[in-house]
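Fold this: VOC family protein
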Amino acid sequence: MPHGDITHIEIPVTDFATSGSFYSALFGWQIAEAPGFEGYPMWQAPNKISGGALTKRDDDFTQPRSYVEVDSIDDALAAAKANGGTVVAEKRQITETSWWAIVADPDGNELGLYEGMTAAPES
C-alpha cells in the first residue's frame, strides 16, 4: 500500500465470538485467526482490500483505531512529536518485515502507524 493509506483497523471488543458474528452478518466480513496471531482474529472485507482485527477491549483501548502506512515509523514518530503530537506506543516489531507504533494528535486522537510488508519478500 502507498504511504498515507489506511492499512488496518482494530476494533476493541469484549467477546470475540459475539462481535465476530455481528460484523460478519452486518458487513460480510470474513473473520479468522491466522497462524502466529492466535487471540487476534483478523477480518477482511468482501473487497479483499480493507481489513483489520478484533482485539480485546481494555481501559486504554475503547474505540476503533486506524493504522496508516508510512515509509518510516521512526521518521513518522519524529514528525508527530515535532508537530505537537505524542507517542502512545513506541515502534514494535510484528514480523521480520513489519512494525507498528501509535501516536496521538494534539487533540488526543490516536492513530496507529504501520511500516513494512505483510507478505514475505519474493526471492
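The helical segments are 16-27, 73-82. The mean pLDDT is 91.
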